[in-house]
Design goal:
The protein is mainly α and 135 residues long. The protein contains 5 helices and no strands.
Length: 135
């Protein structure tokens, strides 16, 4: 992670960090989609690996004890997104990437809505901020 991104991440609330992770996932999904269309296997592999790492990080920060049904639902969605991204890699297909993108955009928009500057509503869904290596 660049020094700029480290500084930016350290000054963010946990909710803002989640939004940053979604932004990163969307960015790498776009790269993966482009790589599939160009038949660039190496770029596709690298971008998909980054998307999967971000989704794994999001999933690992869920607080299943305090987050209740919402955390369980997010866990299921992250699992589904992971499967769709893996399908894209396996079949060299953009449709699963588009499915994953739509879901992540919806999740990102929801988290952005609650990521208020005061950090109020730092919900019990996220255990702590994502680790530095995920961004």
């Amino acid at each position: 992670m660049s020094a700029y991104r480290q500084t930016e991440a350290q000054s963010r609330t946990p909710l803002e960090l989640v939004v940053m992770l979604y932004d990163g996932a969307l960015r790498f999904l776009a790269v993966a989609r482009d790589a599939v269309e160009r038949k660039d296997i190496h770029a596709r592999r690298d971008a998909i690996s980054r998307v999967l790492a971000i989704i794994s990080e999001l999933q690992s920060t869920l607080d299943m004890d305090r987050g209740g049904t919402l955390a369980a639902d997010l866990d299921g969605l992250y699992g589904y997104i992971t499967r769709r991204v893996m399908d894209a890699a396996l079949h060299n297909d953009t449709v699963p990437l588009d499915d994953a993108r739509r879901l992540i955009e919806t999740l990102r928009d929801g988290w952005q809505t609650i990521a208020v500057p005061t950090g109020a509503a730092t919900g019990s869904v996220v255990r702590s901020g994502p680790s530095e290596g995920a961004m």
